[in-house]
Amino acid sequence: MTQPKSVLHGGYHTNVSRSWQAERTLNKEMLMYPIFITDDPNALDPINSLPDQYRIGIDRLKAFIEPLYRKGLRSVMLFGVPLAEGAKDPTGTNADDPKGPTILAVKLLRSEFPDLFVACDVCLCEYTSHGHCGILREDGTLNNDLSIERLAKVSVAYAEAGAQAVGPSDMMDGRIEAIKKALQNAGLAHKTMLISYAAKFAGTFYGPFREAANSAPAFGDRRCYQLPPNARRLARRAITRDMEEGADMIMVKPGTPYLDIVREASDLAKDYPIAVYQVSGEYSMFYHAAKAGVFDLKTVVLESMTGFLRAGATVILTYYTPHLLDWLDEQ
Ligand SMILES: NCc1[nH]cc(CCC(=O)O)c1CC(=O)O
Ligand SMILES: [Zn+2]
Ligand SMILES: [Zn+2]
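Above: inputs. Below: predicted complex with zinc ion.
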């Protein structure tokens, strides 16, 4: 009779012993819910490309968040979506409009939900007429200096309104340093977390988001500032650079196709919280595949969360947050 020299099976024969194999298990505090705030105060518009997700007006926001907060929602990432005629211009003037949806939403959420951590995505693409994430030169290429100056100003405005974190997703060079300095000069650095989307890759997975946020570029694409999908080493350089510039958290995005980068980030930035963003394309992919009977939605989403944790993530941004708050209670 041949017997294997080593027997691993005995170590994970039961539910309990299987649970002991994890270095980390999912809890509600790990989840950050990305939400879209629009400028029509009464809107609660379903987003076609992101089933079960909404563009929410300021007057609907409290009622939208309340039940989730009661279930244990502890953090959100806000995206402003201006839809009004004439809301966009070449420099994204409305990004820090004090009467704009993002700033109003920050104030409302901070005053209504004391234990909710409110983060704001910082970018210009939702607010620029050309749809790019920075300010452009005459020839259509990025003006990096003007862009980071503008992004720093917008970040300070969000922090001043009460945002506990700002997350620049524009991928300009030097934005982390510029924003950190601006927060320091404004006396806000000590209470504002700077989340660097350090390793954000250009690619196909943001399609549904761009429909949701009405932020597709009017010409060209984002390949000159977001990272090439093949670029593991460039991602490592961007992560190291952003740590040196003063980031408080490192994010990788998209998630599922870039788990190796999550592991790279958690190795490189081992003393930092590591966030992973399960982006719109991943959300919709799972949703539609489950609908088509490929697999059970809850099972596959929980498995994808396990993958993020195994790769080293400590914070997960996902549109499945509302589902997960329920699923975690069922377990
Ligand atoms: N810069 C804006 C931004 N911030 C987050 C996402 C994508 C999020 C998602 O797909 O869920 C994007 C889109 C993009 O870069 O085109
Ligand atoms: Zn952008
Ligand atoms: Zn180019």
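The beta strands are 31-38, 44-46, 54-57, 75-81, 117-122, 165-168, 193-200, 249-253, 274-278, 315-318.
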